[in-house]
Each structure stands twice: as C-alpha cells, then as structure tokens.
Design a protein that fits this description.
This protein is mostly helical and 232 residues long. Helix content is 78%, strand content 0%.
C-alpha cells in the first residue's frame, strides 16, 4: 500500500501532536480505500452466485462467511509474515502475479467449459468454493497481497516506534473491507432467483471468459515486471 498515493502528509510519518486514535482511524480509512477497489467484491458476487446455484441459503451464507474469513487470514498472514516468507523462499511479486494468473486461468477454463454435472454426495463433498476461487484468488489475490506487502514495508520504515498500533489499524481495515465483501456476497444469492438456471449458465460462461482474460493480464504483468519490460 503506497501511502504516497494519497494527498497530504504521510499519515504514518512521525508528526508531532498525532494521537494514537488519529493514527489508528486514519490507518483503517487508508486500508479500506486501498483494499476495497482491489478485492472488488462486486465483481466477485456474480462468480459466487453462479458457483452456489445448487446450494441452499444456509450453505450459501456459510460459504460467503468462510470465504471472507479465509481471505482475512491470507491477508493478515502476508502482512505479518509476508516479508519473511518471501525472503525465505525467494519469491518475488511478479512470481505471485504469475502464480495467481495460472490459478485464475484454471478456474476460468472450468467455468467456460464445464464438465458433466455431478449429483449426489459427490457434489456436496467437492463443491466447497469458499477458499478457491472465492477467497483465493478472487478476494485475496496477487493484487491484494502486493498491496499488503507494500503496506508492511511502508509501516516498518515510517513508523518504527509504534508500528504495532499501525499493524492493528491495517488489520482492522481488512476486517471492515471483508465485512463489506460478506454483505455483497450474501446479497448475490438473490441474483440466482432472478436470473434462473439459463441465466446463471450464461453468466458463468461469460465470467469464465473474463477470468481467463484477467489471468492473461496477470501473467503478462508478472512477466513484464520480472524482465523489466515497458508496458504499453
């Protein structure tokens, strides 16, 4: 999260007279402003609706809740341990983008060219979509992870004395962001009743194609960043 993108003084700079409450609230606001457009639950809602067509209302709520919990766990893990994990395994941000693109492409091809429908217990056992593709890579994808890693670097450099307070503010901002995401996903269930089976099938294939396009962009961006190529 590059706080320099926002006007005014660095909110996490060591300025005199800044109370801890002011820093905490501003950290929540900036985290929400940076993460919500990238997680973009409104674009994930049709995907969630199409994947939970055969679920009852209780299971749809459960999957939406679990997806947001998983996404929060992923983002908090990368905030707290991201630099250590990446340095230990030698992973780069372009590598994260390429891996995320491959995952998105796999999901997209399955949506665009669905296999024969499953029935019975096999469906109940296999159709757990909370972690993949809703939490990862839709809500907590390479873009969100990159933002969180950038935030961790900025916080440690600019607020060495009270970085723990800022970390809690960023985590609180993540909770607010994913609470909004849960509300959006929960409301998406109404789309199923409005569109019907035919509309859901068409929407699934359309969003499968769009996911493949997004995946290709992730791949191209990751490759160009890795090799230092200029993007037109």
């Amino acid at each position: 999260m590059d706080w320099r993108l926002y006007p005014g003084p660095d909110p996490f700079g060591r300025l005199p007279g800044r109370s801890p409450i002011d820093v905490f609230l501003e950290g929540i606001t900036l985290t929400l402003a940076a993460l919500l457009p990238i997680t973009n639950p409104f674009s994930t809602a049709p995907l969630f609706a199409s994947l939970t067509t055969n679920f009852d209302a209780r299971r749809q709520r459960q999957q939406a809740f679990l997806a947001c919990v998983y996404a929060l766990a992923i983002l908090v893990t990368f905030l707290v341990l991201g630099r250590v994990i990446i340095e230990f395994f030698g992973i780069s941000i372009p590598g994260i983008r390429v891996a995320g693109g491959l995952i998105i492409a796999t999901v997209g091809f399955r949506m665009l060219f669905p296999g024969p429908p499953r029935t019975g217990e096999a469906v109940a056992a296999q159709e757990d979509i909370a972690f993949t593709p809703i939490a990862m890579p839709s809500l907590a994808g390479p873009g969100s992870i990159a933002v969180v890693l950038g935030a961790a670097a900025q916080i440690q450099r600019n607020r060495p004395d009270d970085w723990l307070l800022v970390y809690f503010a960023v985590i609180a901002g993540m909770v607010v962001t994913l609470t909004i995401a849960y509300a959006v996903l929960h409301a998406s269930a109404k789309m199923v009743r409005v569109l019907g089976p035919g509309g859901i099938d068409a929407m699934t294939r359309i969003f499968g194609f769009l996911l493949i396009c997004i995946a290709m962009q992730f791949l191209l961006t990751g490759i160009s960043d890795f090799f230092g190529l200029e993007r037109g």
